[in-house]
Every structure is written in structure tokens, then in C-alpha cells.
Amino acid sequence: MTERLYYADPYLTSFTARVVERLEVDSRPAVILDRTAFYPTGGGQPSDRGRLNQVEVVDVVAREDDLQTVLHLLSGTLRDDEVAGAVDWPRRFDLMQQHTGQHILSQAFVQAAGAETVAFHLNDDRHGGSVTIDLNRSGLLPTQIDQAEDLANQIVYENRPVMARFVSEAELVSIPLRKPPAVNTAIRIVEIEDFDWSACGGTHVARAGEVGQIKIIKIDRRGADTKVGSTTRVEFRCGQRALIDYRRKNEMINRVAADLSIGHWELDQATARLVADNKALHKQLQEAQGRLLESEARELLSNLRVREGCAVALRVWHDLHMADLRQLAKQIIVRPKTVALLGSGGERPALVFARSSDLVFDMNVLARGAVARIDGKGGGQPDFAQAGGPPASDEQVQAALEWAYTKVRSSAQLDG
């Protein structure tokens, strides 16, 4: 069993201890101390980092077969029996801010929307990692979300005391817990004065004001959970993370506004105009592309390779999209007794083989045979098939089409 010093003082960052066991965990050297200020992963909160003497602590976990014992995974071998531990304080304080902020925000959603927290995730990247709670309700109104955020920040502004203590089963009956504890022994309650009571073993700030600003940044409706039904994921930031998020977004908004030579307050209107303009330009581009393909189709039809009872349109482009090849082929096979053998070389080569309905060549067989020559794959129907493969030059695609053309010339039917 390891004495956990952070229970009594979450602000403790340096301590002395004695090594009681050395072992290896996940191919890393690890030690068990008689006491520690390092918090192990648990309850949605990532573990602390720091050093034991001069050896880096890369992870901290509870022992699987004895949860009261804490394992310190190390970057190298620790040879000393007596150690001085140093906890990475910026990381610890950030996790304290986010975790305490989660308690406050979860209770705020209970009061503002009757929505209870069913899951909590805390990314350990203090420079912008996500923090989320999943609520057991969907369809929350914007007003409810704002009310929860306002209430959470009001608790922060009031700088209410945050207290943690172990309680007995008898005491537990009189405590208005937000949700039942996950354990039935050594129950530790974290209380935000006259607001929230939660069973929690994590580290927390001493007063709500230390959490800093609590800012909701994203709301997502999640799929139905088998236990609680539809849920809502709330992504938020507290303290320094909220400041970093605001700073990044503010810089981006100002940069975009400067690029558009407008004030940031005009961005929504400018964006609406840009979206409308883009849609109009896209429509014009599609119309122009359609006219170009029609012109290409006419040119192909005027330069057909004619054999007895059949005409073949064969051509290779560079980096032409599969959709354009398909459109060209459809226009060409409107002509009776016509075969289209079309291809494009480049990073994403494409082949489209099609025939008019009055012919019996099997385009599926023909396409699979041709694309194999460039190590590609494809297929389709007897009258229309397509294929693609790894990067290929225009010359390689041309050779594949010429192979297909010889099959058309030499066979009255290609029926597989």
C-alpha cells in the first residue's frame, strides 16, 4: 500500500520517500514507494509527471492486483533507495483546473437542463487538449447551454471553497451526491461549497476561482448509448486552456478579417457572400465543364477508329477525373455500334470502357484485362465498366487502351 500525499495536499510538489519494490512494467523500469505525491491515472484524470531524483517519471498507475499500491514507470533505472520526488506543477495545476471545472460544469447542467454527466474525458495536453463531458440528454436548447455556462462561471466568480474528505457510510446518507460512488469503501467526497458533492479521488484546486474561465466551445449530439439513450457531448476548456483557445481563435478571426479587408464584426456577412459566390461559380464551372466535355465528345466522334460493323473512340488525357471520363463515354455511346475506350494517366489513373446497346462486347471483361496491364483493378457491367490503379504514365494507359482495341478488332464478341 502506498500513502498518497496528494489527498492531504494537492499543491504538494516535492517530497521524500523510500523505494519498497523494483519491477518492470510494459518493458520499463518501475518502482513502488512507501509514499508519493504523484497522482496515478484514474477517474478520467491523467497521471502526473515529474522526477524521482534525476530519473524522469513517464507514467503513474495503480497496480492491477492491488489498487492501493502506486507504480511509478521510469525513463531509466533508479538505483537509490531514498528518493526525492518532484511533481511537474504546471501539468498538475492544469489538470486540477480542468477536473474541478468539470465538477462545476456537470452540476450546472443538472440545474440548468436536468442533464447528468455519464462520461468525462480529459486530454493531458495543457496547450489545447480537449476536455469533454457526455450528458444523458440530447436536443439541449441553446438557452440551456448558455444558462449552464453562466451558472458555472458564477460559481468561479464567487470563488467558493473546494473541499475533499473521506466519509463513512453513515455520513454518506446525508450527502446530496450528484451520482452514486463507484466504490463502497474509502469514499472520498469533493465538495464545491453549497453547490456540488461528488465522489472523486482526483486532485482539485482549493477554491473555485483558481479554475479560471469555463468556456464551452462545442456541442455534439452523440449516438444512442445502450444504457442511457441519446447523449450530448460538451467540449469545454478551463483556465489557461480557455485562454489559449480564445487567443488562437481571435488571431484567426483577425487574420481572416484582415485578408478580406473588413472588420471582424462583418465576418458573418462576408462569409455568407463568399458561400453564395462560390455556389454560383461552381455552377458556372460545371456548366462550362459540361460544354467542354460536349466539345470533346464531338471531336472524338469525328475521329473514330472504324472497323466493319463497329466504331471505336480511343483517347488518353492526363489527370482527367473518372467522372468526366464516364460523362464522355455516355455521350459517345449514344451513337449506334460504338465503343468508347477512354483513359487518364497520372497519380490516379482511370479507365472507362463502354459500348452502345446494339453491341455485345463485354466491357467488364475488357476493362479488367486492360487495367491488369498497369497493376490496377476494376470492373462493372457488360455494357459499362471502369477501373483504376497506382500511378501510371499517359503512355502506360495508352498501351492498355491499345491492347483493348486489338481485342475489339479481333473479336466479334467479348462475352467472357
Rounded to the nearest angstrom, the distance between the terminal CA atoms is: 74 Å
Secondary structure tally, helices? 8
Quick one: CATH class of the largest domain? Alpha Beta
Q: Report the radius of gyration as a whole number of Å.
A: 34 Å
Task: Give your account of this protein's structure.
- The chain is of the alpha+beta class and 416 residues long.
- The protein folds into three domains: 3-87, Elongation Factor Tu (Ef-tu), domain 3 (Beta Barrel), CATH 2.40.30.130; 92-254, Threonyl-trna Synthetase, Chain A, domain 2 (Threonyl-tRNA Synthetase, Chain A, domain 2), CATH 3.30.980; 298-410, Roll (Diaminopimelate Epimerase, Chain A, domain 1).
- Helices cover 33% and strands 32% of the residues.
- It has helices at 89-113, 142-157, 169-172, 239-259, 267-301, 322-332, 363-371, 394-410, and strands at 3-4, 14-25, 28-33, 35-36, 50-52, 55-63, 66-74, 82-87, 117-122, 131-135, 162-167, 187-192, 196-199, 214-225, 229-238, 305-307, 310-318, 338-345, 350-355, 377-381, 384-388.
- A hairpin with a 2-residue loop joins strand 2 and strand 3.
- The radius of gyration is 34 Å and the shape is elongated.
